[in-house]
Amino acid sequence: MSFKQEARKFYPKWPIYDEKEINALTEVIKSGEWWCGAPGAHQGNNVWAFQEEFAQLQGSEYCVAVCNGTVAIEAALMALDVGLGDEVIVSDYTFVASASAVIATNAVPIFCDIDPNTLVMDVNKVEELITERTKAIIPVHLGGNPVNMGHLMELAVNYDLKVVEDCAHAHGSEFKGKKVGNWGDAGTFSFQASKVITSGEGGAIICNNSELADNIYSYIDCGRKKNEYFYKHFSYGTNYRMTEYQAAILRAQLKKFPGQHKLRNDNAQYLMKKLNEIDGIKTMIPTTGTTTLGWYVFPILFETKKFGGLTKSKFYKKLNKSGIPTDDCYPPLHSLDCFKYNNLKKGIDYSYANWGGEKSNNVHFPIVSDVYSRSLEFPQEILLASRDKLNDVIEFIKSLKSTTLSQD
Ligand SMILES: Cc1ncc(COP(=O)(O)O)c(C=O)c1O
User: Which region holds residue 109: left if phi is over 0, alpha if psi is between -120 and 50, else beta?
Assistant: First the structure.
């Protein structure tokens, strides 16, 4: 067993499930209705019901469920007519999917540096990245922390750009009283295994425009249109439908969400207060205007010189070895091999991109490069733990400062 697995056994195990998930899944199996069918010819009911329930949770009019959060972004972009020749501005500090979904549409992602405190896209840097080819922006609400959507939407309106909010981490987050995913044209979610509502894999797109919702649906269901003959395919589409198994589990998970959301948020507030009192530790700071932060993971930054020169990998190892589950944050997108060495799609001109070869040098993305070199994150197991366990984390980090550090 690695240190990491060993450490996790002292904290609540994620996913959290009980008889509700087991019974829901068993019912689907016994029903023999293992897929959702089409809008005019329902088979199982779980996908259709989940779409309504999730739309209600996020305060949106429409929701289309899909098989994962990566294709959710792709489907939203495709339905918004993003494609060949277009550029899409994406935060540099995110999981690869925020940008690989852009590649899937044949458009080119352009990476935007982040704010050093909130760790999300620095909206003040977006304007300088806009060109005549820019078609859309993907703000990523990293760790549940909302991007400043007020400012971003002003830019989008001024430059006539589409906005797809990547809310894979931000179930329940709210900026200026409006849930994320409802600021832009569409918001996309992931229900992958580590996410706060999960079915192992899964995704959804929310929006408030019925025509857009229909186009998204058509794309993820083979180019079909609602209430039309099953073998009519009106436009290019593919099969990204969610299964009944996923939806049944998600409906049970949805019921657990409010209580867990409160606990994660209470614990995050406590950790924020206590950890920021330690000289040399800084936590992710909620964006000004955040009314609810749906914490998913909890990123921290440390100053090496305040910790006796401790490197990031040693810091990580020490936390894990002491029983505290800790993960690495995302390597910035510009530094990933697929972008640096252009291992992407054939026949697409990526020469306009602000990454690739020398352009992927960290000097061009100074904030995110610095942040990544000294940041780690606590997974939600910690945010769901007891106060005693949180105090263990705080005390252990303090002890790392006061002991003479061996670098082992
Ligand atoms: C920010 C972000 N966007 C998109 C995704 C893609 O979601 P999925 O893994 O469900 O495809 C993830 C998944 O981890 C993510 O973290």
Answer: beta
Work out the burial of residue 59: count CB atoms within 10 Å of its CB; fewer than 13 is exposed, 13-18 middle, 19 or more buried: middle
**DSSP labels for 252-273?**
HHHHHHHHHHHHHHHHHHHHHH
- Is the dihedral angle over the CA atoms 106, 107, 113, 119 positive or is it negative? negative
- Say which DSSP state 129 is in: G
DSSP-assigned letter for residue 128: G
Q: Quickly tell me which residue has 């972009």 as its tokens.
A: 77
Give pLDDT, residue 371.
98
Which pLDDT belongs to residue 158? Answer: 98
What is the b/e burial string over 33-48, where b = at least 16 CB atoms within 10 angstroms of the residue's CB?
A: beebbbeeeebbbbbb
154 φ/ψ sector (left φ>0, alpha ψ -120 to 50, else beta):
alpha
Residues touching ligand 1 (Cβ under 6 Å) are: 68-70, 94-95, 97-98, 140, 166, 168-169, 190, 192, 203
Query: Does residue 405 register a pLDDT over 80?
Result: no
**Is it the case that residue 6 has pLDDT exceeding 80?**
no
- Predicted TM-score (pTM) of the model is 0.97
| Strand partners of residue 282 | 301
Whether the predicted pLDDT of 225 surpasses 70: yes
Instruction: Give the number of C-alpha atoms closer than 13 A to the C-alpha of residue 221, restricted to the C-beta side.
Output: 27
Of 127, 160, 165, nearest to 149 (Cα)? Answer: 165
Retrieve residue 208's tokens: 């408030």
Q: Please identify, by atom number, the ligand 1 atom nearest to the C-alpha of residue 68.
A: 10
Of 14, 68, 70, the one to substitute when testing ligand 1's pocket (max ligand atoms within 8 A of C-beta) is: 70
**Across all residues in the chain, what is the average pLDDT?**
95
